[in-house]
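Hi everyone, sorry if this is the wrong subforum. Our group has a chain we'd like a structural model of before ordering constructs, and none of us has done structure prediction before. Sequence below.
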Amino acid sequence: MTQPARDLDPAQSARDLYGVELRRQRQLAGLSLDRLSDIVNYSKTHLHGVETGERLPLPPLSEKLDAAFGTGELFQGLWGAVKREHTPRRFDHCLELEARAVRIQEFGASVIPGLLQTEAYMHALFVEGEPGMSPKEIDGLVAARLGRQEVLRGDGSPDVWWILGEAALRQAVGGSAVMREQLKSLLPMVNTRRTTIQVVPFEAGACALMNGTLILLTLPDNSTTAYQEGPRSGETFDDQETIRRRVREYDRMKACALSPRESAALIEAAMETYKPCESPRT
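Answer:
Right subforum, don't worry. Here is the predicted structure as tokens:
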């Protein structure tokens, strides 16, 4: 039996505002949760959790709700606020620019970049990296990061170039099964019309940027902003002198990296170190 909805406070939480608006639009349309579940192809349990503020609306639910209710981009806009609510404040500006960028260039020294992460990899990162967080809080962070990946879908998706340090392939986040699936998911993205992945092998030695993360975001007006992050800190830069230095550093990383074909081979080789568990023979 469905539990009664808890009291929501839309003035205090974007998640609560989303739930209140979903319930209001559903009731205005005269739809039960069962009927709405059939229309948007999401489970009744998930929809009830969103209405009560217990769950985040996993993508692409917002687009489906706007289509079902004829609400334009209402729920898509609310989802943007929910994502920001579950993203570190220092990353807010980068998140806004990322959604509008026509070109994204990113380097990750030891962690797979967020736009490439599988859900299981994200979850493992947050469980280990955010000790003390409740399962609900971790689910919120995972859902927000999954929402970022929407920029990679559709005809208007940006050109994206990722450079990964080999350490990102070798650090066993979440264990063998999680890493094998994570690395497998990279292979279709290595060399496509819109995406490129290169890997900097250990043999390259010391390189620029090897101690952190860099994201270069180019907007339709051809302006570029840099976001650089280290442990528990991050900063956005848009002055031209800093941008020139960061672009130059990124170009140097490309020079240190393997070609896309060689990078795919290294990813496949790393996958083999994460062999799936075999059932014991009887």
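For your construct planning: DSSP finds twelve helices and six strands in the chain. Residues 240-256 form the longest helix (17 residues).
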